[in-house]
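Weekly puzzle thread! Below is a chain. First person to post its structure in token form gets bragging rights.
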Amino acid sequence: MPNYDVAIIGGGTAGVFTAYELSKLHPELNIVMLEQGNPIDSRKCPIIQKKTPSCINCKSCSIMNGFGGAGAFSDGKFNFTTAFGGWLHDYIPAEEVMALIEYVDSVNMSFGATEERFSTYTPEAKVLAKKALEHDLHLLRAEVKHLGTERNLKILGLISDYLKERIDLKCNTAVESIERFADDSYGLTIEGSHEKINCKYLVVAPGRSGAEWFSGQCKKLGINLINNQVDIGVRVELPATVFEHITDVVYEAKMIYITKQYGDAVRTFCMNPYGHVVAENVEGCITVNGHSYSDKSLRSDNTNFALLVSNRFTKPFNEPYQYGKRIASLSNMLGGGVLVQRFGDLIKGVRTNEHRLGKSFVKPTLNATPGDLSLVLPKRHLDNIIEMIYALDKIAPGTANHDTLLYGVEVKFYSSRIDLSSQLETPFPNMFACGDGAGVTRGLSQAAASGVLVARSIAERIK
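Winning reply:
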């Protein structure tokens, strides 16, 4: 029965930076990282490799699981802000969060990350923000780095090599259950084997794909959960020239709009200039996402971004995660995966078919099934999305063109939050939780920062 000083569940961004910081501060520690997916150099999606046009439900989805987590195949946006990307400032002062983010960026740069930053604080960005406000669109303020999908993978590969020399890194190793002992140490049962792992300190950083599993473990252990929201919407794809005057200035424009019809918040998310729309597998449900590359030779002629409607539920309903999955499953049922519809067809109330899609001036970057999103998304969601598209058309004329493509569905699951201290320690001593899967963060920068915070908390306790 192996015994470790520290066990980290999850090899995503939060887990990676927990391991990096702990091994740096206390190189004598015996640390193990347990990741259910593949090593970084074995994470290969058949869709991205063009070996198959649609998801074939691999045993472990390389888009969502594996060393580097769901962020590994993202386009590597690293945001310098507390305005979005998580709630770490609920636990520590905002200035401390920003200091942690800057530290993580310095680590990334030591492994090859770019120094270039885009900002909403430039004179050009302020003009853009003013124009957006004239149409009730609120541009969120931040600085952002674009690492690029291929560069992001390279950086993670170097960090993986670094960690393998300092910790016990176990990929393709899923944790089945967590057990707490009387002396506040912990035992982990490995799925599909008789292996047991004991540890003095436990860090749970399960990422988005492990959020539902972690919720189940918390319920078994008696840790109270607070359900977060679920965001449901579509991914928009249009000619890159439509948004060039915006993306050339701020790269990613995160804008929030409150609809006049319902008073609901709709936001842009994950904007990918010259990018590609991609599918991803979330526990058997095929949803849509987007990537973009820093290498100009890999770029497309399109820009894509998500339009998401936030849903917060009141009692007695307490399963927003399942709600999002059920809506995604409707798209899978109708189209065998992701559906795509022209905006003009949606407005006219007709289904997009192969013939109509073939006439579109916007050529899709994802091989999705032409269909009718009104059969999938609730009317309130569609009304909100349509109103948002017309609002965006006022600052980026061409957004509401007939041939603009809408892919569905895009779902952003917010993990249940648990009661955590300012050190991100659970009510159980020596058990910490961080990252997206713990409901603490929602993006690369804050997820990494939360891992560093946990590592420093443990290091201080050991000292």
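Puzzle host: Confirmed. Bonus trivia for everyone else. The first strand starts at residue 3 and ends at 9.
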